[in-house]
UniProtKB/TrEMBL annotation:
InterPro entries: UROD/MetE-like_sf, Uroporphyrinogen_deCO2ase_HemE, Uroporphyrinogen_deCOase. It is found in: Cytoplasm. Pfam families: URO-D. Belongs to the uroporphyrinogen decarboxylase family. Keywords: Cytoplasm, Decarboxylase, Lyase, Porphyrin biosynthesis. This is Uroporphyrinogen decarboxylase. NCBIfam families: hemE. It is an enzyme of class 4 (lyase). Homodimer. It catalyses: uroporphyrinogen III + 4 H(+) = coproporphyrinogen III + 4 CO2. GO terms for molecular function: uroporphyrinogen decarboxylase activity.
Length: 345
């Protein structure tokens, strides 16, 4: 990593060091809300796009060029490593990941083999090309958290209540832990491949883990997420841990070993800092739907996030979840500039 990159506001904030301004990036900043994204994606399926380095580089760069965010997020999807080991799945427009034969028994779990770098040569190639192109802007690699991946595999697609997932978790804990062990190994391998190729930080998106109670998180999820973060420790890159609806889980998530905890919009950052405990930076947490309101509504709320974020030992400004597809890109441009100007020290 170059000195400029290591000294970037984003990586400094993740390490809880003083920053010239609060760094900002947006979950799901690539794609969806950008007309230039829709143009380059025309005629190419989501998974085919993820496997085409030229497209990955272009789409990852689009929001960085447009907004001057302090970090780029690798254009891919949480199901890419599962597809790469042979799981029969696709990403259906307007729905999300859909699995052909959901994983519900020991033989389905046994088929989930480890991920090797040779399964995802396009990931290595894309990250290497991106790191060159981004120059002084850090690239965040990512993977899905094991609970979230397990939910897609078991339910066969997006789910509101995660019924079958919880049925396995509570009713067949040995199967559950075997599945989580395999997903943990795949996730760790996928993240290490991205860092080996040059990613400067990683984020674990355990988006749907807010569906479990703290006591169950401790029993059924924490052992696995802890192994993922411990398995990345030797790489020396900041590790970010994010989920939605995790207000009650922030304390136990803080124990999993990440350097930065992502907070959704439901818990103010000053309160989140108390729940997460010392020794962590926070990331978040403007409600993405606020951006659908006029700027004079957005500005005081963004200022409030910045002010509460000062209570944390380090703060990376973000939304509380991904950019909504109907967001006007000009609002994100204005928000990026506002965060930079209002937080300048
Ligand atoms: O054809 C398309 O454009 C499909 C839309 C799309 C896109 C642009 C999907 C399908 N995935 C992605 C890219 C993606 N996914 C990124 C790249 C960076 C970016 O867009 O800035 C990232 C980080 C993800 C991660 C992801 N995929 C998560 C975790 C983050 C989150 O939003 O919580 C999850 C849960 C998924 C699953 C997924 N993939 C796609 C959709 C529509 C969904 C969600 C479906 C559901 O509600 O369960």
């Amino acid at each position: 990593m170059t000195a400029h990159l290591a000294d970037s506001a984003f990586l400094r904030a993740c390490r809880r060091e003083p920053v010239p301004h609060t760094p900002v990036w947006f979950m799901r900043q690539a794609g969806r809300s950008l007309p230039e994204y829709r143009r380059v994606r025309e005629g190419t399926s989501m998974l085919a796009a993820c496997a085409t380095p030229d497209l990955v580089v272009e789409i990852t760069m689009q929001p960085v060029r447009r907004y001057s965010t302090d970090a780029a997020i690798f254009f891919s999807d949480i199901v890419v490593p599962l597809k790469a080991i042979g799981v029969d799945l696709d990403i259906t427009p307007g729905v999300g990941p859909v699995v052909g034969s959901p994983v519900r028994d020991a033989s389905g779990i046994a088929a989930l083999r480890p991920l090797e770098p040779s399964d995802v040569p396009y990931v290595t190639e894309s990250v290497q090309a991106l790191v060159k192109e981004l120059d002084r802007v850090p690239l965040i690699g990512f993977a899905g958290g094991p609970f979230t991946l397990a939910s897609y595999l078991i339910e066969g697609g997006p789910s509101k209540n995660h019924d079958r997932t919880k049925a396995m978790m509570y009713g067949a804990p040995e199967l559950w832990h075997e599945l989580m062990d395999r997903l943990t190994a795949i996730t760790l391998a996928f993240l290490r491949i991205q860092v080996a190729a040059g990613a400067s930080a990683i984020q674990l998106f355990d988006s749907w883990v807010g569906a479990v109670a703290p006591v169950d998180y401790r029993a059924y999820v924490l052992p696995h997420t802890s192994r993922i973060f411990a398995g990345l420790a030797d790489l020396g890159v900041p590790r970010i841990h994010f989920g939605v609806g995790t207000g009650e889980l922030l304390g136990v998530m803080g124990e999993a070993g990440a350097d930065v905890v992502g907070v959704d919009w439901r818990v103010p950052l000053d309160e989140a800092a108390l729940r997460v405990g010392p020794g962590k930076a926070l990331q978040g947490n403007l409600d993405p739907a606020v951006l659908l309101a006029p700027w004079d509504v957005v500005e005081p709320r963004a200022r409030d996030v910045l002010e509460r974020g000062r209570v944390a030992e380090g703060h990376v400004f973000n939304l509380g979840h991904g950019v909504l597809p109907s967001t006007d890109p000009d609002q994100l441009a204005r928000l990026t500039d506002f965060v930079h100007e209002a937080s300048a020290r």
